[in-house]
Design brief:
This protein is an all-alpha fold and 102 residues long. The protein has one domain. Helix 1 packs antiparallel against helix 2 and helix 1 packs parallel to helix 3. The chain is elongated. The N and C termini lie far apart (62 Å).
């Protein structure tokens, strides 16, 4: 790692691409399991974004790892946070609607 830092960055990039693929497949599964509800489209967008990030990472893997690691992790965390906040607002709204009906 000390003498050849690019090997470490490249391996970290490969590890993150595997993470993005797993995040995408889990997002697709969650989106299609929530399909009758309104929130499923946000999970689908998040899964598509993770899949695109993983494909871009794999296409330019050893050379683009140097600058894409931080950028893509930030993008992924941003989309994950937006989807989780939207889901929280949807669940809160659903609970309020159920409380008014009762």
């Amino acid at each position: 790692m000390i003498f050849y830092p690019m090997i470490g960055v490249a391996s970290l990039g490969l590890l993150l691409s595997v993470y993005f693929f797993m995040d995408a497949f889990a997002g697709f599964w969650l989106a299609f399991s929530l399909r009758p509800q309104k929130i499923w489209i946000f999970w689908l967008i998040n899964a598509i974004t993770s899949l695109i990030l993983a494909i871009i990472f794999i296409v330019g893997w050893p050379f683009s790892s140097l600058y894409l690691v931080g950028l893509f992790v930030g993008i992924s965390l941003l989309f994950d946070g937006i989807v989780l906040l939207t889901g929280g607002f949807y669940v809160d709204k659903k609970e309020d609607d159920n409380a008014k009906k009762a």
